[in-house]
Give the backbone structure.
Amino acid sequence: SYNRIVSFISALSNNKINLSEGSVKNFYQEFYNKSKKTTKNIENNVLNENVMHTDETTTKMNGKLCYVRGYSNKKNVLYKAHKSKGNKPIEEDNILPRYLGCIVADHDIGVYKYGKSHQECIVHIGRYLEEINQNVKETNWQREMSSFFFRVNQTRKIAMQYKKKKFEEYEIERYEKEYDEILERAKIENREIESVVYKAKAEKLRRRLLKYKESQLLYIRDYNIPFDNNLIERDLRMIKNKTKISGGFRTVEGAKEFASSMSVIKTSIKRKINPLGSIRDIFDDKELFGYQG
């Protein structure tokens, strides 16, 4: 990737600026070191918001898989790179262990012991329901549940346009009752599925929805809770693009430096700040994104 950067700068300057790969690496290292206070500010901003999105994606390091986890909200994103996945990297990041708000994630059991509350991504649930719908003809509950989730969210969106902040308690009770009734029908309908594979999948999904009911329906109780985890998925997309275009990393240190630097750049973009201006400010020893409450 250093070679591509050298070529790009040379072409951009009509061959007037010809840096060595070593110079690019030194600039990169200097930016990483000078941006540490700013990335610490991003970390504090993520910790101080009531809602945090988190997810991880894969990239490559010397041909092997490595992982980047993102911690994000509307104005900030913090990336952390690791050789492995699971609970150990989460503990090393020390973000979720200190977080006291609502965590929005996919069905990641490892994050359930952190935070005050949890909302699972309903869009992901919708995909599992659609898989059952596409492959199972004996049941209707999956269509009813999918319709329920998205209908309630649409009703919530309309209510928010009228400055409402939450459903009335009787509405919440009605929605929870409907949710329970759909799962009761699912228990009966799943017995009629002929395919052994999809019978097991449908029943597994039903049990998951039953066990994690509170985390499926938190968005009904609080309009501030997102319906999906799309925000962090968009934030992590550039990791996939980087892997496809420039390849992976040679060292863990290189991956961590990249993650830290991109935290500054992507946070700038989220805040509608010119990232080139942020890069210049970092090189001028300025500290960015201090918490403003």
Observations:
- Residues 141-161 form the longest helix (21 residues).
- The beta strands are 51-61, 64-72, 77-82, 102-105, 117-120.
- Residues 121 and 229 are 5 Å apart (CA to CA).
- The radius of gyration is 23 Å.
